Amino acid sequence: MKVYPQLILIWSISILAIESTTSIGHSRGPLLIKRDNDTCSSQLLLIAPQQRCEFIKSNCQDLEGLVNYFSFYYCKFGFLKTFAIIPLSLCLFVMFLSLGVTASDFLCPNLDTISKFLQLSDNLAGLTLLAFGNGAPDVFSTLQAFSWDSGSLAIAELIGASLFIVTVVVGTIAVLHPFEVPQNIFIRDATMYIFIVLVVIISLLIGSLSIFTSLVLVVAYVLYVGAAVYRHSRYKAKVAQLLRDQRSRNAFSDTIQDNIEDIDEIYLDNFARLPTIDHFQVNDDSMNEYLTFQDMPHDSISKSMTSSAGTYGLRMLLKDLSDHSSVSRGGIQLSRERPLTSTTTTNDDIEIGDLDNFEDEDLNIFGYKPDREVVSFLFPQLSRFKQLNIYDKILTIFSLPVNTLLHLTNPVRNRATIEELNQQVRTLGTDNNVPSFDYEQDKRFLLIQTAAGLVFLTINFTSSMSHFWAIHLPLGIVSSMALTYLVKLVYPFGPISVRFASRIKAINYFASFLGFIVSISWISIFAGEIINILKTISVIYNLSDDILGITVFALGNSIGDFISNYTIAKMGMPMMAFAACFGGPLLALCSLGLTGLITIPKLQGNVYELAMTRTLAITSGALIVNLIFLVIIIPKNNWILDKTIGKILILNWVIATTLCIISEFL
Length: 666
Description:
Elements: H1 3-19, H2 39-43, H3 52-59, H4 69-76, H5 85-117, H6 122-127, H7 129-134, H8 136-147, H9 151-176, E1 179-180, H10 183-206, E2 208-210, H11 211-248, H12 254-258, H13 260-267, H14 284-294, H15 298-304, H16 312-324, E3 325-328, E4 331-334, H17 345-349, H18 360-363, H19 372-378, H20 390-409, H21 415-426, H22 439-462, H23 468-490, H24 500-540, H25 545-570, H26 574-599, E5 607-609, H27 614-636, E6 640-641, H28 643-664
Antiparallel strand pairs: 1-6, 2-5, 3-4
Helix pairs in contact: 3-4, 5-20, 5-24, 8-9, 8-24, 8-26, 9-25, 9-26, 9-27, 9-28, 10-11, 10-26, 10-27, 11-26, 21-24, 22-23, 22-24, 24-25, 25-26, 27-28
């Protein structure tokens, strides 16, 4: 398959996935209801506090979202008075956590498998499908905000998150581990970044987002991907030549000579998954940085990784680094096997059929010992609960209900599962063909997920239609059962015939595409609830969307990446962490163009009205100033990003955020 058909197919998948969620912003019957007027928000604060609950019951029953958070705040927890913000904040925390977990633990692994179906290289997949998965929280939050006429909230979040990453995250990396910045790719990415930010600022100054501006943003990212793929191909050729030269000079050990292609993939494709600037230059310094990492104790690396932090790309990179490498005094030693598991809880902590990971003491954390198979299916994150630190235990407990729903409705065919199945195919007809994979258990789990996932999709996409309960829901359930039965017939009994390979391949890709669609639906719901809660808080405390966007919304979507980048920098790989600080925000800002292409044609005048407020002016101005500061100061500092620059960047974020908060109350 050539690159151009692949890109067209990728584009089609992205458009269809995002377009399918726009209905969430419209009336959808019992599952989600859209506000028809602003009576509630405009008059609520004019009502006496003791009468607000009754006012909400009479005037605020037609709000967006699954939950009426005004009623939640004033009625359910009204007895807490001012402290009712605590349960509301917990709901917001759980929604942010759910959004991140769905994207990194369910959407991205399935997209990774789909990329293999499309025959994409790891680099192209990382810059397209996996980039889409990693940026899904920002992409769908922006789409939901625009659909609910809260564009200012989305713009503020995008700019606020970009500012936080460029200042606090980059600054923290520099303080932890000063390093030399690769010149050409830094200038390329910084220039593109500044251009995209200027396009957004111009739209704010004009007061509208048009179709043309949206196209500019989308085309800019396509060109960025094309440039990165082209450079990667040249880079790969150079490294391949370097490795051949080293081998011809007998510089590497026999282990390396026997595994030259594996080394090539380790250096190139695994590190290229992130939608970022390239991680290494072909020079001795880059090789030395890689060797420096390998000198670190494996245990310290493993302990530094949290199971819940960051996007799929960053977390898989952490796993690749820790799993792939060890070094001995005699030379580089690399494992023969490429890592096939991601760092997500779903993919790592337990694999399908691996019930031995569960110790009795782990199963007994809630005072009873449930069936191991059920626990492995619904609660895989409990397999290592005893070994988690306090932070991860808290996140596990809070995410447990959502994780259970996701595992019940969302099949995940990660690389570990597929590689294990492929191994069975490779051993067909040999004496070593002893099944190590529990096909019966995997089949049961997949049938449950298929049935539950299809019913969920039926409810999600047809609940607004007339005769939903009488026609669409029963028809959807019957169709789900029929398709589930078909999956049961197709699923092979085991590696006992030559048809096993084709059947299990079909099952894997079916499950991946189903998981992709289900993940998109859940992400849209969680993103909508986040916006709903933030809009509620803005009314209760009389705050603007802008201040909530650059603070709560931006930090909620960025804190995971901060933790992952911090971990990578602390491991002694600051260049990788720095690289990740450009690709993610670039994709998020360019996703504004994709959102515009979807929503603007449905509006009168074919424009989406925006406004340049004081808060947005301060934040966007600070973002441009910091980008220009980096472009100027880094070359003057001999291309070294040191602690002084890092401290200045962090201070700039504190100053900009403080000014925004002050301007909110002036």
